[in-house]
Amino acid sequence: MSENITVLVTGANRGLGSKIAAEFVARGAKVYAAARKPESVDAAGVIPVQLDITDPESIRRAAEVANDVTVLVNNAGISTRANLLTGPMEDIRAEMESHYFGTLNVIREFAPVIERNGGGSILNVLSALSWKHPAGSGAYAAAKAAAWALTDAVREELGPRGVTVAALHVGYMDTDMVSYIPADQKTDPAVVARMAVDGVLGGATEILVDDTARRAKAALSGAVS
Ligand SMILES: NC(=O)c1ccc[n+]([C@@H]2O[C@H](COP(=O)([O-])OP(=O)(O)OC[C@H]3O[C@@H](n4cnc5c(N)ncnc54)[C@H](OP(=O)(O)O)[C@@H]3O)[C@@H](O)[C@H]2O)c1
Known about the structure:
Keywords: Oxidoreductase. The protein is α/β, with parallel strands linked by helices.
């Protein structure tokens, strides 16, 4: 159980974020469900908070409200499916603004909050595509790779300050983001949420959800394709 922790989950109004928020509630935690539109949050037992990860002022306001946070879950993200050579530059930039700069801005604002509250954890929801970079998802994969590097660097900075930084890597999940993928290729996000919460509570720094993520990591030591 996790009665003594206070969690903030970004993008908690739908998809994996809503499942992670619900899973922490089920384990007894206090949970802020952060969303661009807090009125769209429907998970039971959470405290909705307005937070757009691309808007530093909204992140600052959220950190004032949720000033007792000890666990931050950076889940919010987008997928434009832009390729890098001919995709719209605004989509390529939007992926970086979300997965990289957005996640970094939230960490910069909340890491001092977690420290002031005696330490805790940050979980960044990454992807198998942090490690595998297909042309058709070039913008997304580059942004998730950047977020992976960010995760490692921030872990080194925050570890000595009492904050554990973890990454979750997963293939397809059954959410709106990949509604075009057949159901039999997707993992139930509730299952992923349970693994995420188990990982955070167990002090893990890397959570590999499925074979897609495990294979992508293993392939890093192979030849460049
Ligand atoms: N689905 C997959 O197959 C898959 C695989 C690997 C990794 N992931 C990652 O898992 C995470 C969750 O994705 P999902 O599958 O649950 O997708 P989703 O169902 O499309 O949900 C995305 C969530 O992120 C929020 N969001 C997007 N931009 C935001 C912003 N600027 N500020 C605040 N919230 C924002 C959305 O809020 P709105 O409702 O306001 O749009 C929504 O709550 C993402 O980081 C994604 O990259 C997904």
